[in-house]
Amino acid sequence: MIRVAVVGAQGRMGSSVVEAVKAADDMVLSASVGSTGELSDIRTDSTDVAVEFTVPSASLGNVLTLIGQGVDLVVGTTGWTQEKLDQVRQALATAPRKDQAVCIAPNFAISAVLADYFASKAAEYFTSAEVIELHHPDKVDAPSGTAIHTAQAIGQARRRARLASMPDGTQGEAASRGQLIDGVPVHAVRLQGLNAHEEILLGNTGEQLTIRADSFDRSSFMPGVLLAVRTIAAGGHEGLTVGLDQFLDL
Question: Which residues does the record give as (S)-2,3,4,5-tetrahydrodipicolinate binding sites (predicted)?
């Protein structure tokens, strides 16, 4: 049995993870704490993997604390910058366990992970690309971590293909084009009734490819979370892994 602790257990995602762990035949819930709860009891003698779903302001501190306690981690909190990721890598380099593993994923929905992967493969064949992400109005960050990750993957693919900057004749003080991430426009929609949705638009003269992923309920994230927990618990992924796609053998 994989002993799993959940940090952020009272939150929307955390509570769903608690129920998913309880329902899994190969897992047992070893601890459940709030987003800023006491982490001292989450140690390797009682926990194999901790799942962290809190808020961006608390997540880095939680992750660094748990690394210091030798616990492997699966992290679903968004808001991770390159600077924060570098702090995690540095902490792992001096961690008490040299085989310690941390997975930080912007999205655990298999559909969203595949959409991101497909977009990175298609990007080099299209002149233009834009990302639209749509979420419920209670989401604390905009754009979403998933959309940022997608835009960065598209930007990397375009650089590898030596593509020119995207054509964009927008002018004027009132022009609204979203946030530019790695050269890719990203637009965030916050609308009551939505859950988590992403649309990637890729265009050439006379054609368009649309890749869309829709998560209608938080249950859509649970298979990916449990996959990450099982993969981390099985070993062989030392250090920091960013993105669930690393565990899908794509």
Answer: 136, 145-146
Gap between the Cα atoms of 232 and 247, Å rounded: 9
Closest CA to 212 of 130, 96, 95, 155: 130
What is the model's pTM?
0.85
CA distance between the termini of the chain: 27
Torsion of CA 215, 219, 225, 229, to 10 degrees: -160
The reply to whether 170 sits in an annotated binding site is no
| Residue 204 in marked binding region | no
List the catalytic residue out of 22, 121, 135, 237. Answer: 135
- Cis ω for the linkage preceding 143 (within 30 of 0): yes
The verdict on whether residue 137 carries a ligand-binding annotation is no
Catalytic residue among 98, 139, 187, 197: 139
CATH number, domain containing residue 235: 3.40.50.720
84 part of the active site = no
Its sign, for the CA torsion 14, 16, 18, 21, is negative
Q: Is 153 left (phi over 0), alpha (psi -120 to 50) or beta?
A: alpha
Answer yes or no: do 132 and 185 share one domain: yes
What ranges make up the beta strands (E) of the chain? 2-7, 27-33, 49-52, 72-75, 101-104, 128-135, 179-181, 184-190, 196-204, 207-215, 239-242
**pLDDT tens-digit series, residues 43-102:** 999 999 999 999 899 999 999 999 999 999 999 998 898 999 999 999 999 998 889 999
**Rounded-to-integer distance, Cα 27 and Cα 20, Å:** 9
Task: List phi, psi (to 5°) of 140.
Answer: -85, -15
How many domains does the chain contain in total? Answer: 2
Residues 148 and 180 grouped into a single domain:
yes
